[in-house]
Backbone:
């Protein structure tokens, strides 16, 4: 039986994509979209571009592409703007990032050169390894937020934009804990005015976005919108928010493999993960404060997937370590090693080794595209607040405080697709399947 369809406004006009940070991930995303527009490449890894969704019974054989099932903005409608603490345009930044080949970048050079970053909101305390020069100079964080609002309104007017989405692709900020300032919108606004040091730059951007009703996703592990003040603002303005920390590389593999080990009830005594990477992200993460933010995000996944409290004999005592080593020669081509010590029948030990030679930004770019399109869809569908169905994309998915996050990639995908079915009034798929045999 079909459910009631949700009303979704049309995706008419241009969709502005506001990127905080014009580094490896942002430029690989923008250059990729421009290349795809010109037929120079395929959107591999993107659910919105290549994914399908099964509808109804298996016998019905209804498996439309997601893009044909829900009314998404087309990639031709995307228009980009960015802020960065350095002045270089998207072409120069893409060359410096060293992810995509120069021969490809040359073919989208004009489009990339046209994207010149706006002056950033940045405090050296937030990211110790960077010394930006292209910065806004307003005295208070409140005034800085107002300047961002002006930037956004100017971009919207100049490019004749219909709707916007903001994605944080800036550097990982130093680890901070939730404090009193983050507990309500009122306290946050007072903190912006009094330059409270518990408000890092990423929160100033988020405030400007949500205040204007612009959906916000956080691709870094920073706290940013994952505090009560922003949940309150997002609900008040009916704006979708999600985060934190794009799930790529080693953690992606972890959330693919750990559910499999648990499904077969194989025990775990240790999981050691180490990485080398040499891009600017790696340099930033070489600072202990930024690394701590990343480490917290990476460590939480196994605890949640394996549920030691439910399976004490299998998972109550495993040793989990994550290391990131800055190693410049590798640039964006990260190499990760995982050593997994597991045990089976009668406690007999086994080992599993993974050596993933990945490309960080190649894995992240399609996630940015999907988040842009899905957040815009959520906004048009009237879905405000935390978007748990987008947990699929994050290492530390946001949830309400009383809920624990779902980390298992396959449950996350089911949740995402069921949300799309829900939006279109299609039946949820439970995989029960008994009715085929009755
Ligand atoms: N696969 C991935 O690449 C991946 C996965 C998960 C998370 N992330 C996170 O995504 C973010 C971007 O990664 P990246 O590889 O593009 O890093 P990057 O260092 O290449 O780019 C970050 C950019 O942000 C700029 N920046 C820093 N602070 C800023 C501010 N306050 N305002 C505006 N710009 C600012 C920097 O100058 C830089 O150009 C990082 O936080 C990273 O941890 C990346």
Residues:
């Amino acid at each position: 039986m079909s459910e009631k369809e949700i009303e979704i406004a049309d995706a008419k006009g241009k969709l502005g994509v506001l990127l905080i940070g014009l580094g490896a991930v942002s430029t690989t995303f923008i250059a990729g979209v421009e290349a795809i527009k010109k037929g120079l490449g395929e959107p591999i890894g993107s659910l919105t571009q290549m994914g399908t969704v099964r509808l109804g019974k298996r016998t019905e054989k209804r498996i439309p592409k997601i893009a044909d099932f829900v009314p998404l903005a087309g990639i031709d409608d995307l228009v980009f703007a960015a802020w960065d603490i350095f002045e270089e345009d998207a072409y120069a930044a893409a060359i410096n990032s060293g992810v995509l080949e120069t021969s490809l970048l040359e073919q989208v050079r004009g489009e990339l050169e046209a994207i010149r970053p706006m002056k950033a909101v940045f405090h050296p305390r937030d990211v110790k390894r960077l010394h930006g020069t292209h910065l806004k100079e307003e005295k208070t964080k409140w005034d800085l937020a107002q300047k961002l609002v002006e930037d956004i309104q100017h971009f919207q007017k100049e490019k004749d934009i219909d709707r916007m989405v903001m994605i944080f692709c800036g550097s990982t900020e130093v680890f901070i804990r939730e404090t009193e300032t983050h507990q309500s919108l009122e306290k946050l606004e007072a903190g912006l005015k009094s330059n409270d040091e518990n408000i890092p730059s990423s929160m100033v951007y988020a405030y400007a976005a949500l205040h204007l009703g612009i959906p916000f996703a956080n691709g870094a592990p920073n706290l940013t919108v994952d505090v009560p003040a922003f949940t309150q603002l997002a609900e008040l303005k009916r704006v979708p928010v999600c985060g934190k920390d794009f799930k790529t590389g080693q953690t992606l593999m972890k959330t693919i493999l750990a559910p499999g080990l648990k499904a077969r009830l194989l025990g775990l005594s240790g999981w050691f993960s180490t990485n080398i990477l040499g891009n600017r992200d790696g340099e930033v993460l070489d600072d202990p404060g930024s690394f701590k933010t990343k480490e917290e995000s990476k460590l939480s996944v196994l605890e949640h997937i394996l549920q030691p409290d439910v399976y004490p004999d299998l998972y109550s005592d495993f040793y989990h370590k994550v290391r990131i080593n800055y190693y410049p020669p590798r640039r964006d081509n990260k190499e990760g090693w995982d050593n997994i010590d597991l045990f089976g029948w009668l406690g007999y030990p086994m080992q599993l080794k993974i050596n993933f030679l990945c490309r960080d930004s190649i894995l992240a770019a399609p996630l940015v595209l999907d988040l842009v399109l899905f957040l815009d869809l959520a906004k048009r569908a009237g879905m405000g607040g935390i978007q748990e169905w987008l947990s699929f994309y994050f290492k530390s998915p946001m949830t309400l405080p009383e809920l624990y996050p779902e980390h298992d990639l396959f449950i996350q995908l089911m949740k995402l697709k069921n949300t799309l079915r829900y939006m279109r009034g299609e039946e949820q798929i439970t995989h029960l399947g008994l009715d085929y045999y009755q």
Observations:
- The pocket of nicotinamide-adenine-dinucleotide is lined by residues 20-26, 83-86, 97, 120-122, 127, 130, 169-172, 201, 219-220, 245-246, 248-249, 279-281, 284, 360-361, 363-364 (CB under 6 Å).
- The radius of gyration is 22 Å.
- The chain is about 40% helix and 15% strand.
- The chain has two domains: 14-246+362-423, 250-357.
